[in-house]
Structure formats: C-alpha cells, structure tokens
Amino acid sequence: xxxxxxxxxxxxxxxxxxxxxxxxxxxxxxxxxxxxxxxxxxxxxxxxxxxxxxxxxxxxxxxxxxxxxxxxxxxxxxxxxxxxxxxxxxxxxxxxxxxxxxxxxxxxxxxxxxxxxxxxxxxxxxxxxxxxxxxxxxxxxxxxxxxxxxxxxxxxxxxxxxxxxxxxxxxxxxxxxxxxxxxxxxxxxxxxxxxxxxxxxxxxxxxxxxxxxxxxxxxxxxxx
Amino acid sequence: xxxxxxxxxxxxxxxxxxxxxxxxxxxxxxxxxxxxxxxxxxxxxxxxxxxxxxxxxxxxxxxxxxxxxxxxxxxxxxxxxxxxxxxxxxxxxxxxxxxxxxxxxxxxxxxxxxxxxxxxxxxxxxxxxxxxxxxxxxxxxxxxxxxxxxxxxxxxxxxxxxxxxxxxxxxxxxxxxxxxxxxxxxxxxxxxxxxxxxxxxxxxxxxxxxxxxxxxxxxxxxxxxxxxxxxxxxxxxxxxxxxxxxxxxxxxxxxxxxxxxxxxxxxxxxxxxxxxxxxxxxxxxxxxxxx
Lengths: 224, 291
Known about the structure:
The complex is a heterodimer of chains A (224) and B (291). Chain A has 9 helices and 7 strands, in the order E-H-E-E-H-E-H-E-E-H-E-H-H-H-H-H. Chain A has helices spanning 19-22, 46-51, 72-75, 113-125, 141-158, 163-174, 180-187, 189-203, 212-223; strands spanning 3-7, 26-29, 38-42, 61-65, 86-91, 102-107, 129-134. Chain A is elongated. Chain A has a 7-stranded mixed beta sheet with strand order 2-1-3-4-5-6-7. With 224 residues, chain A is an alpha/beta fold. Chain A starts with a strand and ends with a helix. Chain A folds into 2 domains: 3-134, NAD(P)-binding Rossmann-like Domain (Rossmann fold, 3-Layer(aba) Sandwich), CATH 3.40.50; 142-223, N-(1-d-carboxylethyl)-l-norvaline Dehydrogenase, domain 2 (Orthogonal Bundle). By secondary structure, chain B is an alpha/beta fold. Chain B has 2 domains: 6-181, Rossmann fold (3-Layer(aba) Sandwich), CATH 3.40.50.720; 191-276, N-(1-d-carboxylethyl)-l-norvaline Dehydrogenase, domain 2. Chain B contains 11 helices and 8 strands. Chain B has helices at residues 14-25, 37-56, 62-71, 95-108, 124-129, 162-174, 190-206, 212-223, 229-236, 238-252, 261-268; strands spanning 6-10, 29-33, 72-75, 86-89, 114-117, 137-142, 151-156, 178-181. In chain B, strands 3-2-1-4-5-6-7-8 form an 8-stranded mixed beta sheet. In chain B, helix 1 crosses helix 2, helix 7 (190-206) packs across helix 10 (238-252) and helix 10 (238-252) packs antiparallel against helix 11. Classes of the chains: A alpha/beta (224), B alpha/beta (291).
C-alpha cells in the first residue's frame, strides 16, 4: 500500500529509523503535499502536518500521532457523530524506555471503515501490533496501568511489602515480566508523573493522581 | 524445617488438594481433612493423575510417586489432626466457618501446632482471633494451581509471634515454595492489585473505550504479559470475580474493587468464562488449565 510519512520532528513513537519510514512511498517534511492513499503524520506538531496536506478528503486515511490529547482536538467533534478519514495513533512507550511494538489506533464513532483498515494495514506491514480503540484519554494501556502503578507506589509507602517482595509477587503470581517498582525505576518515575497527572486532570479519578514518590521524582527532575 | 513433620490440610477443594500435593511432594506426612468423603476421593484421584503426569513428563520417577502417595492420606475425622505439627486451612471464604473450624482444632491439636490460613481476602488477625492461639497463627496464601505455582504470600497477624512466623516461613521454604512477606491487608499483594486491575479493564469495555480482544492485545503487546485481562478473567470465571470483588470491596470500600455491573449481567446470561464456553471470549472447549 502506498503511503507517505510527514515527520514534524521529535516523534515519541518513532524516535529512530523504523520500517514504517523505510517502507513509505514518500518521506516528507511538513509543508509538502503528501502522496499515496495513506498519510502518516508523526512528531510533536501534527496539527501543522495535518494542515499541510492538500486534498485531505481524497486520501483513504490520514493518521496523526497523538500525545496525551484526544483525536477530537485535531478533528473537532459534533454531537457524537464525528468521524472521517482522519485517525489517531500512538506507539506505546513507557517513559525513557524504547517504544514497544504496540500501536494504539484511535477511531471516532463515524470513522470510515476503509480508513481504519488502511491505517491498520500500514502499521501491521511495518511489523507493529495494532489495537483499535475509541477516542478517550489514555487510550487503553495508560488508562489501565497508571492506577496500578500509582497503587504500587502508595502501598510501598504504606509498608504493605518491600519493593522486592511486591515485584516478586506480581512476577511469580501473574507471570508479569517485571514488577511495578522495577518497571518504574527502569522507565522513570517523573515520566510516570507526567502521564498520570494528565489523566487525572482529564478523568478526575483519584486513582490517576500521581503517587507521592512520582511527585518527588518530578520535583527533583525540575530542580536538576 | 526440623519441627514440622506432619501437615494437616483442612478442606479438599481445588486449593486444599493442591496444597496437599505440594506438602506430600516435599516429603511431609500429609493428612487431608474434609467432611465430604466423595470430595476426598475425587481429590485422591486428581492427585494420582497429577503425579502420573509428572512421571510421564520426567519430573518424578515412579518410585518417588509411590513414596509421595504413601505420605498422602485423608480423613473425615477432624480428631485425626491431633498428630499435626501445622494445619493449613483451605475452606470456604467465610469468617464464621473458619472460626468454627479453628476453635475445634484448638481443642484437638497440641499447643505447639501452628495454624495457617490460605485465605485470599479475609484478615489473618481476624481469623486468628477466633482460633484460641493467635500467637501461633500465620497467613499462607498459595496461588492457584498450588501444585504448579511457587508463590506463597505470608502474613503475620497482629499477635503472631516472631518465632511462629519464622517457623512457618522456614516450612514454606522446605515445601520448595517461594514465600514473600506481606502485611495483613485485604487481598495481600496479589489480589489487592489484580482485582481492581481486572475491574478497570471491564469498565473500559462498559464505557466503550475498546473491545475485550483489543484490550488483551494492547496489554500483552505493551507490557509483555502472558495473558490479557479478559483471557485471565475468563479463566477465573465471572462468578469467582464477583465473589472476590464482594470480599475486597466489603473490606476496603475502594471504588475500583467494586464489581462492575457487566459482570453481574454476564453471570445472569450464563457467560461465566471458559468453563461455560463463553465469557469475554468464545471457546470451543471448556477444558480447565492443565487438563
């Protein structure tokens, strides 16, 4: 499938060379008309990338990299009937760790089925696993794991168990490859604070309020 | 563990039968008690089948199995626990039932016998409070299936003596298990995290964030988990998830521990999980894990 990639710079999903860029018919920078049926816009300024695409409605799909924002921020919303050939995506990544193979592909209530299928195929052909979700804060993974990680930090403070015993329990009991405390140490507590705080503001659920240890790490990162 | 030679297991449901296998396999004389003779007989057959499989897989030799099975006996008479150095309780998750059992055992077992509970949700201190020997009482929560899972969450109650906890800890290691110490807290570590996590996944479906299969795919792909939350919930069963939620939420009142309404609707519709052929996923067979 012919597709283009518009790179607006500082992509969290694709910080380094990847098969997605290598397989593109055209790798473009912003301000240049995109060719092909599907246009993937990556980087920190996808709004500008989207604005640069001519004849948008003639594309099968336009896929925008999302941060913590909803796709509706870029497309607008209308009475629950929004949806077009524009989708969102994020390749899941925990803090400073390398991006995973998982792409969360975001649709709206009336997203064109052909646009969804084409976008999914572009990512899958690049060796990525795609999970489709609707347009909600945190999508799937952040929505599920941030309360779990906050709870682990809180329970560590409360003395439920040692960090090692908590990690061992989750690894041996549930087959997780890594316990929550080791995972946060590896990927960064300050980065967890950023995502968790954004979700707390979006959802208003106390389970997303960053735990004390994440707040401390964020404060220390600011002072460094 | 020099002081413990004979192990009593009270209750021969899935957990009790598994714990008995672990104890007998580790070389302890193991006595399983249940009021239901048919349940004891069924557990005996399951144990024999498990050990036969272990021989087939080369994990045990036939002569070892003969010795293990000679260590493993059962009884419908609770008085037979008088010879036990430790009794591990694995009966229904009901405080009154557990208190009644331990009160009887306290009159039967010698003073030095340690009492342990395999509860997954009820406070160890509360159970110990009705045992007559709360200083010699510990929590030993094995994971399902006990005969395959190494983890044991071990909790002291408020009045558990250090010597009793240490003796139970050493015994756990002698079983070949991996103990972790946790405070006496509803759900200990595992269920404290797992029950809300699974409920949150169900609420994502309720609120239209994504379909179960997509959520499973996302969690496995992003976190490297062997199973997605809905694959696990289908194995656990909606009826069990409801019981776990009721126990946890009843004790903690934490909103994320409350059972999502969808679970109750699925139970009403007969969508219990793998065992009924349909839960969040649809199954062609209903074989249980390891069968």
